[in-house]
Amino acid sequence: MSASAPEPGTVPPILELREIRAGYGSIEVVHGVSLEVPTGSVVALLGPNGGGKTTLLNVCAGTLAPSGGEVRFEGNPVTSISADGRARRGICTVPEGRGVFPNLSVRENLLMATQVGVPMDWIEDVAFTQFPQLAVRRKQLAGTLSGGEQQMLALARAFATSPKLLLLDELSMGLAPIVVTQLYDKVRELAAGGLSILLVEQFARTALPIADFAAVVLQGVIAHRGSPAEMEEAVSASYLGG
């Protein structure tokens, strides 16, 4: 849990979703969802596959335009701003599936982070300090890394941009438990430093220990929301079989 998370209402939320509706083609997946990410807090979106979590995250990132509602970042409307524009404002996304470029080297993948104006020397220093195993593979093609190393690379690239808001989608998917623990330890470090994080995770027991607030997304609506302690029972009843 973020050690410096502010009390709700003391500062404006860094991210607000207001009555968001979104989907694909004629199929609406998200039905009027409102959500806030308080500045300096970690908010976990939990729920089973197909519930609408990733759709909501894509709306936040700007990779999916909502059919209704408004997205606000640092108090300003960003609904019509592109994903690139949001990245330049400080919203950084680590998508499901890691989002690395398999035919580029580790260093070349990190170079992509310079598109938001961060010097390459800084990026390499942060990335290789956080994940030393990537330093010895800097010339290796990202596609030849293990799944865990690819996720480390995606996180390293995100960390190095010094984002204001980090969006994480299914960080643990397809990875061994020991690797997931290592990755979430790094996320915990950032959270303790006050970084605002919105994370999507199917495995609630993995996400709740680092979250300040959580919401369960079922069939395109938020079915439950509250503190991690309050969510334990709700998560179990909602999609873990009681």
Tell me, rounded to a whole number, the average pLDDT: 87
**CATH architecture heading of the largest domain:** 3-Layer(aba) Sandwich
CATH H-level name of the largest domain... which superfamily? P-loop containing nucleotide triphosphate hydrolases
The domain count comes to 2
Kindly identify the CATH topology of the largest domain. Answer: Rossmann fold
Largest sheet: 6 strands, mixed
Q: Count the helices. How many?
A: 9
Question: What spatial form do the alpha-carbon principal axes imply?
Answer: globular
Query: H/E order of the elements?
Result: EEEHEEHEHHHHEHEHEEH
What key attributes describe this structure?
242 residues, Rossmann fold, six-stranded mixed beta sheet, four-stranded antiparallel beta sheet
